[in-house]
Amino acid sequence: MAQVPARNPKYSAADLWPPGSKDRDFPPAAFFPVYLGNFLCQQRAELVARVQQYFASKGLLARMVFVRSAQNDPFQSYQDKTKLYDCLVYLTREEDARDAVKYLHRDKYYGHRLNVFPGRNRHYFSPDSTVQVVGQVPGVCDDSPAQMFEDEVRKATCKAISCNARNALDQVLLEFKSSEEMETGIRLAYRKGIGLTSIKTTALKQRFVEADIKQEIRKRQQFVKELPSPDVLRKLMQGKKKRHARLPANHDHVIRALRRIQTVAAQRHLSINLYRAMFPNAYNQFMAVLQASNGDSQAIGFIQTYVAPWQLRQNQLNPWEWMHVHLHNEGLNYVQGVITKRLLN
């Protein structure tokens, strides 16, 4: 989880209205925007508050958030479907904006890697290290979020992705760390039935910057007066006492794995009820895997003898049911990741 260095000095009431924010022709010019993309929010009406809460959790004051209107932005119909939104987040200090880009880009928020870039300067995907997904990716619907494509490509290639974006309905872009890794990734993905092709021209990482929507912002300048909630402001201005984090127990990890499954099910439009019918003992299975890694003989015995209902008719599963088997694997992958971290420590 990304962490931002503590603010020094701490925020005060003066930060809410920096010089020029009340008397300029374009008040947002007194602030420092960043572009935020891939932000998951179940209720669009709560987006501004959720964004401000997220930034506050990182110690940053998101003074205001500009979300485009559906009337001016047809792409939002797709965003309403995936619950993944983008917006401009205005911060009160230039250092805050730099740190947001430096520390929060690629932070994982409810299963999706965030895109955080400057809100005024355009950043581009490099043709030397960026690919576009072409054709069908096994197990992924064509209109799925970019993160699902990234996850499958990463599994197929074992190569790190530095940025993903779906800024248009017909385009999913993935940026590798280097041109060499991109070339290797294209070959490895092809072996797994995934088509990737390098892009021929530069493409924007931000779907928009401030200049692109300046007239839209001018018409809604009242948003400058919309302060974060009193609770958010109080925590940022007073600071919070540090707590020593409790090490998660196996139960905590299992609950997180099950929540991961619920999140992915929503993203992939799968049925959580069907999943529960196919895997009624998911909790016990995940718990047994964790306990077995510590040498628990009873847990090892459970794993060796347990048969899930779906396995009894494995050869008769239809594609829809197989998608729920893959969903279960998301939880198992999370549990295996916990075990791997324990071994490394």
TrEMBL record:
Superkingdom of the source species: Eukaryota
Name of the protein in its database record: RRM domain-containing protein
Organism of provenance: Culex quinquefasciatus (Southern house mosquito)
